[in-house]
Amino acid sequence: MSDASRSTSRRALGWLAIGALAGIALAAASLVRAPESTVPALAPGVVALVNGQSIEREALARFAAVLARERGRLELDPAEERRILDRLIDEELLLQRGLALGIERREPSARRAIVSAVVDGITSDDAREPDRAALETFYRENASRWTRPGDVLVEMARVPKDAPEADARAAEVVRRARIGESLDVIGAELGAPIEPPLPPGRISPDALRDRVGDVVVQALLALLPGETSEPVRAFDGLWVVRLLARDPDVQPPLEAVYEPVRQAWLEREHEERLTRELALLRERATIEIAPSR
C-alpha cells in the first residue's frame, strides 16, 4: 500500500472512531433526528432517519443550544441548525459503516468509545443525589479515608545523589543518628542544606510533603516517635528522617470534606449499578471459556 493510501486509510479510521464515539453516545441516549417539515412521514419528534435509525429533534436542539451558548447567542439560525443535522447524519453513517466493517471489535479506540458510552448510560440513568443522612452514614463507615495525620516534629538530613560515596554517607548518617546525634548536625557535616529550611516546631504532613516529596513523608509516617529511618531514596538525594513527636490524627467534620465525600458516594453508586448490570448481562449471555492448560 502506498504512503498516500495508508494516510487516507488512517484518516478514514479516525473518522470512524469519532463517528463511533458520537454516534453511540447519541444512540445510547436516544438522540438521533430531521425536520418534520421536509419529511412529514417521520414519527413525531424525529428529524431524520438514517437507514432506519432515527435522529431525534431533542438531540438536534440540544447540540444547537450548546453551540449557541458557545457563540454567545440565544439560538442558531435555520441554516446553522441544518449544518448540525448534517453532521449528526454523517456521524450516524460513519458509525453504521464502522459497525458493518466490524471496526468496533478490531479498532481499540472505537471499541473503548462504545464500551464507555454504554457504561456512562448504565451509571447515569436514574442517577440520584445523596441526601444528608446517606452522606453521614457513608462518612462514618469510611471515616479513615478522610482522616488526616496529625502534625509532626521532625529532624531530617539529605545526602545529594551525586555526592561522593552517597550511599556510604547516608548509612553513616543513620548510624550516628541512632546513637543519639542530631540529624541537623550530621546533615551539615555529611549532607547538603535542606532548601527551603524546615520551619521550627511542628509541621503538617501535607506541608512537609510539598517540601520534601511524598516518598520521604511516607517513610516518616511509618515511624514511631523517637525512631530514625533507613536512607530514603528520592529524586533529589538520600534522606534520613527522625520522628520526634506526632500529634493525634485529625478527623475533619463532614462539612470540611463534603464534596469529596459526595463524589466518593456517587462513585460507589456507579460501581454498584455497573456491577448489577454486568451480573444480569452474564446471566443472559452464553459464555464459553477454554479450559486452562
Description:
The protein has 293 residues and is mostly helical. The protein folds into 2 domains: 3-124, no CATH class; 148-246, Roll (Chitinase A, domain 3), CATH 3.10.50. Helices cover 54% and strands 10% of the residues. It has 11 helices and 5 strands, in the order αββαααααβααααββα. Strand 4 and strand 5 (237-246) form a beta hairpin. Helix 1 runs parallel beside helix 5 and helix 7 runs antiparallel to helix 8 (183-190).
What's the SSE blueprint?
Layout: H1 3-28, E1 46-50, E2 53-56, H2 57-70, H3 78-101, H4 103-106, H5 108-124, H6 132-141, E3 152-159, H7 166-178, H8 183-190, H9 205-212, H10 214-221, E4 232-234, E5 237-246, H11 258-284
Helix pairs in contact: 1-3, 1-5, 2-3, 5-11, 7-8, 9-10
Name a few traits of the molecule.
Chitinase A, domain 3, single chain, 3-stranded antiparallel sheet, 2 domains
Share of residues in strands: 5-15%
As laid out across the biggest beta sheet, the strand order is 3-5-4
Any low-confidence stretches, pLDDT <50, length ≥5?
Answer: 1-40
Overall strand count: 5
Counting H and I runs of at least 4 residues, what is the number of helices? 11
* Main sheet: strands, sense, barrel: 3 strands, antiparallel
The structural domain count equals 2
Which overall shape is indicated by the principal axes computed on the Cα atoms? elongated
